[in-house]
Write a structure and sequence with these properties.
six-stranded mixed beta sheet, globular, single chain
Length: 423
């Protein structure tokens, strides 16, 4: 086993070699262009790689026994119906707080790009659906690891955040909801079931939450879907690999069939490795390649949506890997913004450092799906100097919300006999 000093030296050498392997050909010195990984990217030694793929879970510390959250055992009262009544039930415990951060809705070019005054209700057309991508911030990380120095204590309490998270979902009512850093899946599943959602969850193999006090178990990824809109046809999951070594990141893949038309859509969600630097950028790019291989194994030319916290700016190689012409994927928010990604999808203050990045994405297949609109991230003015999370928003990441429509050129709906509904 490497000593701490040997580990630091090995990381320094690996970072240097990884940086050298990042190249943009003849434009190597042009910092305005996104770097790509050379034909032979640097691969760290096995022992260092094993450390890197788990870095972020605190493997030098003993795990802490999880604490069941007593409040999570209290479900929705029987008399509270879906819809407006459920949203009101969610809002009552947090009525003393500021309203959710304002969000504006925009339609894509060549339509007017000036945002309308408020988000629209979910699309009602049988060929349309709304998807939400959101890293909701694991409770254990938010309270014990992320150092949100300017965030009021009440804003980080689970008894505040759980209602704010549900309020965001029930305000926009997505038909498909892709979440990361979920460490209270049972509670979300119980409440969202009242609205007609079903969900699946996959924990990280070695979640960092397990090493923090008052944790509620491991965090991971989840997908919820409106069971009145879609029927689950297929479910797959994967521990993402890096150079054939399993990492601490996971992915969930679902094939959903629209009940009214028989059209299918494949939805994949993931949360890639965090931290900056050339070495981690190369690692994320390998994770992206593994995701695409996993995707190609299961998609069978179905319309596809890939959502996630990729922990990578558009300038990183993994963004180019995901949007390469061979993948048939495109960023929905770049399309909504005339070709450029938003300036940020996460904005927080850690200690005294202002951290503003665009690292969350909704990718889709433009050959079979059309983006008809989406919700902008909150403005800097609305966020204020403390950024997020805050009393008006429960996570350091902002939800991405897009309305998608099946294209006329999409494959014919499936006509096989459907299994008996479990609803």
């Amino acid at each position: 086993m490497l000593s701490l000093q040997e580990l630091r030296e090995s990381l320094e050498v690996a970072e240097h070699l990884a940086r050298l392997s990042l190249t943009s050909g003849s434009d190597r010195e042009d910092t305005t262009k996104a770097p790509t990984v050379s034909a032979k990217p640097y691969v760290p030694p096995k022992q260092l790689l094993l450390y890197l793929v788990r870095m972020g879970s605190f493997t030098s510390k003993p795990q802490v026994e999880k604490v069941e959250c007593a409040e999570d055992k209290v479900g929705v009262p029987d008399g509270v119906a879906a819809g407006r009544a459920l949203l009101q039930w969610v809002r009552e415990p947090i009525a003393h707080l500021p309203p959710l951060l304002p969000r504006l809705y925009r339609t894509p070019p060549p339509f007017p790009v000036t945002p309308s005054k408020a988000p629209l209700p979910p699309p009602s057309s049988p060929s349309s659906f709304r998807i939400m991508q959101w890293n909701i911030l694991a409770q254990a990380l938010g309270t014990h690891a992320d150092n949100f120095a300017q965030c009021p204590r009440e804003a980080l309490e689970w008894d505040t955040r759980k209602y704010r998270i549900l309020e965001e979902v029930l305000t926009h009512l997505p038909h498909v909801l892709c979440l990361q850093e979920v460490d209270h899946f049972g509670y979300l599943e119980k409440v969202l079931a009242r609205q007609g959602y079903r969900g699946v969850f996959m924990p990280k193999p070695d979640s960092p939450c397990l090493y923090l006090p008052n944790n509620n178990g491991p965090d991971g990824c989840a997908i919820f879907w409106d069971d009145n809109k879609f029927e689950l046809v297929k479910k797959e999951s994967r521990v993402v690999e890096v150079w054939h070594v399993q990492s601490n990141q996971v992915a969930i893949l679902l094939v959903l069939e629209e009940r009214s038309s028989g059209r299918r859509v494949l939805v994949l969600t993931t949360h890639l490795k965090a931290r900056q630097g050339a070495l981690l950028a190369s690692l994320r790019n390998e994770q992206g390649k593994d995701l695409l291989s996993f995707l190609d194994t299961h998609r069978n030319d179905e319309p596809t949506v890939v959502c996630g916290d990729f922990n990578a700016e558009p300038s990183e190689p993994v963004y180019s890997t995901m949007t390469d012409t061979s993948t048939r994927l495109q960023s929905s928010y770049a399309f909504l913004n005339g070709g450029a990604e938003p300036d940020y999808s996460t904005w927080k203050v850690r200690g005294d450092v202002d951290c503003c990045h665009n690292i969350d994405y909704i990718f889709y297949t433009p050959s079979s799906l059309q983006v008809t609109g989406g919700v902008d991230v909150p403005t800097e003015e609305a966020l204020g100097p403390g950024r997020a999370p805050c009393l008006a928003y429960p996570s350091d990441h902002f939800s991405l919300i897009c309305d998608l429509t099946f294209s006329d050129t999409d494959a014919h709906p499936h006509t096989h006999a459907k299994p008996e509904s479990s609803r």
